[in-house]
């Protein structure tokens, strides 16, 4: 049935290590028809996520948002086809993410409960609350790349770890100040967190101890984190994005402070090989920039003020970076093809 079509393409073996040097300055980009053209959102697209094990040429994408609907699309450069949609009557969706390579999707919002949707079996599980926690909202979370752990942003400096399989509480991590951002390392072994105190914390998930803590140079509230194998991007409410080495033996200094946003950096993401960092604000139009990580320079040709982005609320790169999907305030999921990576497929 539906489930089999949803993930039929994900048995294709992933080409590991397909990478070549991305040229700086000019990014070759082509606009494709919107990924959700067949069924646009009725409100802000709060979440877009590509299935990490889907076919790099026609990947599987989910979109979700304030219209309480989770939708799945097979994405292509000529057209994207809608596979399936599921409506959550009580839940304007703030966050949605595939759990690793499984077909399971975590869905949450400004509610004390969350859902796990098994898209292969078409089965929906409501997790009414997390035992021992009083949070009225679970709207922010990160799912580990291996699909085993969900880290919810809790109240008062708490990060709530939930086992994705059993859907049970595993542990709480506690930092100073309030938590604003969480991100797993690509190997799923550590979690990074930050927030109102401007410090970045690294947690070893085996011992659940804080193994590193450093002060982000910007000094304001940290609003977003992104991690690749080599780099860590720390975005702040000031709009400054600091790029660090992922691991450092000694004192932490940014490799580069990127000053291209004038309002809070709300979202950031590295592409699959870590050569591009996309970072955005939802508070100004065209508030998206792409950084060429090896040279630490922002691409100058795209996007421009003429690129019809609207207000950017979410984005994701496809598994081999052939596509960049961008969810905006108008309910569109814009789709762009990155030619450098398309040629490698």
TrEMBL record:
GO terms for cellular component: Pwp2p-containing subcomplex of 90S preribosome; small-subunit processome. One of its GO terms (biological process) is rRNA processing. It is found in: Nucleus, Nucleolus. InterPro entries: Utp18, WD40/YVTN_repeat-like_dom_sf, WD40_repeat_dom_sf, WD40_rpt. Keywords: Nucleus, Repeat, rRNA processing, WD repeat. WD repeats lie at residues 179-213. Belongs to the WD repeat UTP18 family. This is Anaphase-promoting complex subunit 4 WD40 domain-containing protein. It comes from Cyclophora tenuis (Marine diatom).
């Amino acid at each position: 049935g539906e489930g089999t079509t949803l993930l039929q393409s994900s048995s294709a073996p992933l080409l590991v290590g397909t990478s070549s040097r991305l040229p700086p300055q000019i990014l070759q980009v082509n606009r494709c028809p919107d990924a959700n053209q067949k069924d646009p959102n009725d409100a802000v697209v709060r979440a877009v996520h590509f299935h990490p094990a889907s076919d790099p040429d026609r990947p599987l994408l989910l979109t979700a948002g304030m219209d309480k609907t989770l939708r799945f699309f097979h994405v292509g450069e000529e057209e994207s086809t809608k596979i399936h949609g599921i409506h959550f009557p009580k839940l304007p969706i703030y966050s949605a993410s595939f759990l690793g390579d499984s077909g399971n999707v975590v869905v949450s919002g400004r509610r004390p409960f969350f859902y796990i949707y098994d898209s292969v079996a078409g089965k929906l599980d409501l997790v009414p609350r997390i035992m021992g926690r009083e949070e009225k909202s679970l709207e922010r979370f990160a799912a580990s790349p291996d699909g085993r752990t969900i880290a919810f942003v809790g109240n008062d400096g708490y990060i709530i770890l939930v086992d994705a399989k059993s859907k049970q509480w595993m542990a709480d991590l506690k930092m100073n100040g309030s938590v604003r951002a969480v991100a797993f390392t690509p190997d799923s072994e550590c979690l990074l967190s930050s927030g109102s105190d401007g410090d970045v914390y690294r947690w070893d998930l085996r011992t659940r101890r804080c193994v590193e803590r450093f002060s982000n140079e910007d000094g304001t509230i940290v609003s977003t984190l992104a991690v690749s194998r080599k780099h860590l991007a720390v975005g702040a409410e000031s709009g400054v994005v600091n790029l660090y080495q992922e691991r450092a033996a000694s004192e932490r200094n940014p490799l580069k402070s990127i000053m291209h946003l004038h309002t809070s950096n709300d979202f950031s993401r590295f592409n699959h090989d870590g050569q591009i960092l996309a970072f955005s604000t939802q508070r100004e139009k065209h508030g998206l920039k792409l950084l060429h990580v090896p040279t630490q320079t922002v691409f100058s040709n795209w996007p421009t003020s003429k690129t019809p982005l609207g207000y950017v609320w979410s984005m994701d790169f496809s598994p081999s970076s052939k596509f960049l999907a961008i969810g905006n305030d108008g309910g569109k999921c814009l789709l762009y093809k990155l030619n450098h990576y398309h040629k490698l497929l």
